[in-house]
Each structure stands twice: as structure tokens, then as C-alpha cells.
Amino acid sequence: MVLLCGANTTRNNLSVRVRFGCPRGGCGLVSLAIVMLAVMCVFPCTAREVRIGVWRGAAALDDPGALELTVNHLNKALPAHTFVLKDMSREELARAASERTLDFAVVDPALYLDLEARFGAERLAMLRYQMGDRGYTEMGGVLLVRRDAPKGAGIEALHGGTLAVANRWGLGSWYACICELMEAHGPTTDFFGRIEEVATPRAVLAAVASGSADAGFVQSGALERWVAEGVVERDAFRVLSFVSAYDSSHLPLKVSTPLYPGWCFTAFNRVPDDLASAVVRALLEDTGRAPPFADRPSYAGWALPRSLNRVHECLAGVGAYPYRTGREVTFAFILREYMYWFIVAGAAMVIMLITTSYVTRLNIALRQEINVRKQAEADLRQSVERFEHIVACSGDWIWETDGVGRYTYTSAIVEEMLGYPPEQVLGTLQSDYFTASEREKFLPRAASFYARQERIFREQFRLVSNEGRVVIHQVTAEPVMNGRGELVGYRGVNRDVTKEVRFVSL
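Given the sequence above, the corresponding C-alpha cells read:
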């Protein structure tokens, strides 16, 4: 048996040609081998897909087609993997990095520092360009005005005007400009009257050309490419420069700002070390390019990363991610940033003031009520003391009973009159101190008094003292009623008239 397996030039597209013959013996093992080889030829191993996220800000790159050339080179250099480009926004890049669904990214250095600080991204290489016989890896920003703008006025003439920008998150398309403006003229929002954000860098040119914007800001290299492609005329715009100590004479492009490291090829922490190393080697070996243009930037491969200290300083100066310092703190800024907190705090303060006022009024009313009660208690004590003093000065027995004739109060003089201590008298019945004959006469009369709620006036009763002596008491008492008009007892006075009665009898 003979098995022929051939592959055409297209990767992962293999054709199989099989010619069978069965030698003597071992046909079973040979057949199994044939099947296994056929399966391997028909279903080859699928290469692992490697995702490269490209920030949509890449429209500001000098040569957007450079990324396609890079991916084609990586697919040839590392055939075990399939590299694909994914056009992503800044938010999508951050989300994919957080969810660990992205392997590499090509981003502006300002966005790279944000991804590095938040997700541990790592720079592998820098994008390299060439224009004529001069190569470079740096970039800057270009501040454009119309050709008819006053030549001697400079940047100061733009104060209060309108600035058009295409991307307020990129280093070359925004931060490089406002960093210089803040250093020379203070906050950008105070220098320009209005900042208009448009869709693309070419829309920036259109806004400046039409007069809807006094100036525009784009990344270096874009103007030269548009002039070479015939998008704009060479003398249609003028480039203004910031005063800077950085030397940009080696850059074959017009720039307005200091130079910064260019776009970064970035790896995320989910990429294995061997794959990251292989990608770096492949990027640095990618030097086979067509002859460069003399009038526009062209892709020239990748270079080793350079220091980002200038980018750090710029972002820190303008208070951009990953920095929060350097932003001027004004009353308007605080009010704008914390407006809702101020509203909530104000509402809480009003509620607290209303509650405090209400509680204060309640406390005042409570103190007044307490003072009134204290005064009433003091008056009551004074009245009780006055009553007790009067009772002590009186020679009569003052008492009070409940509804059945049981003593509930007695003055102390009862001990002198009958010989019983007051505490012993409390709780006993009036009839307990009458003589036997007087008790037989009194009980029916007492029932009549209580039933008719009559007043007892100077009634005489015979009582027995603790020593067994019979005394005669003259009793005067008034019925005590409750709020419902019901009898609850009697309150009265006993006077000892024994001597007077015996004197009259004699």
C-alpha cells in the first residue's frame, strides 16, 4: 500500500491522494496507520488565534497600513499562531484587558501608561518610521492655523478662540499641546474660548480651513502625508511652534511641541513569556520594506522601547491618567466635581437643622413641664406640711375612711385619745372601736349613711379606749366622691366630749 499526502500553498488547506495496495501480512495494522495519517492530513491542528487590539486613535498614525504589514509578518514568522487585528475604542481596550481577552495592543504612549498602571501592560517595541534617508521613532504635536492668519501674532493671538482636535486622549493629538499651553499660558480651557472635538484628524483640517475653528491640533507626520496624497495644498496651513528647550531638528517633520516616544506594541499579562519573546524577535527582524518616500513618512518596522520619562512628566503636568496631580483646584472645579455631594450635604444640613430645632423646642417644653411639676410638687409638699402642722396643732382626731368604713388616714392624736398608735389604727374599721351596744346601734345607721351618702353632723358615739375606758366622741364627717359621683369614703373629725356630757348629766 502507498499513501501520498500533499499540501498546496495555502496554509491549513491540505489535499490527500491515497493509493491502496495490500502487501502480504499485516493488513490490519497498515489499515489503521492509513486511517490515522488520513485524519492528520484532512484535519490538521488549528493555529492559536492571537488578538492584537488597535486603538481607534490609530487613525492619527502616520501610516495606518503599517499595522497590516506587521500582522502579515508575524503570521509568516510564527506560523503556529494566527495574529488578527481588532479595532477597539479606549473603553473596549480597558475592558478587554480587565477581562483578560486580549493578547497585544498597539496604542499611543499616553494610553499605554494608563494600561500599564491599571492592568500591568508591558511595552515590547516602538513603531519606527522613515522619511527619505532619515529614520525616527519619536512624535510630537502640530498646531495648525490658516495661511491667512497674521504671521507675527504667534500663539497669543489664539487666546479666546476655538481649537479643533480629533482625540482628547492621545499624546500626539492632545496632551502634547495642552502641556505646552498650560506651561506658557495657564489652563487650556481658560486660554481657548471653546474646544471643538471632531471625528477625525482630517475633520480638524476641514474645521480650520472653513473658519469654524481658529486653530487645529494633529499628530506630527499627518500633515506631510495629506500634502503628499493631495488632500491639502502645501501652503494651505501654517504651523505655530511653542517655545521649548527640546531639539527637534533631527526630525524630518514639522512639529510644534517637544518630541515624545512613538506608538507602542504592548503585551498583556496573559501572554506567555515564550510567545512575547518570539514576537519581539519577529518585530525587530522585520526590516524588509520598500524604498521609503522622500515626501511622506513610511513604515520602517519596529525598534526597542525608549524611556517614557517625558510622557510621564507631560501627563503628570496636565493631571491625566494615570496621574491626578497638577490640576488646578479652583472653586468652580470643586463645585463642578462635588456638586451632588454638596446638594446631599446641604439637604442633610437642612434636615439636621429642622430636627435640631424641633428637638430643642421639645426640650424647652419638657423643661417647662418639669419645672411646673416641680413647682406643683413643692406646693403639694408645702400644703401637706401645712395640713400636718394644722392637724398637729388641733386637739381633734382627723381621719379618713374608704367606702366600707376602714381607716385610710388618721392623725397622730388618736394615740392620746384612744391609746392606739396611728399605724395600728390604719386598716381597721370604725366599728372596731365602738362599745358593743353602740356597735349594734351604729351599724344600721352607718349603712343608712353610706347608702344615702349623707353627711354626719355632731353625732355622738361611745368608744372604748386601749385601756378599756369608755369615752364619748362627737363625730362630724363629709362623704368623699370620685369623678363619677360614686362614694369612696368619708372624711371627718372626732372630738372627745366625755367630760362635757358627764358634766351635763350630773
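The first strand starts at residue 2 and ends at 7. Try to locate this feature in the C-alpha cell string yourself.
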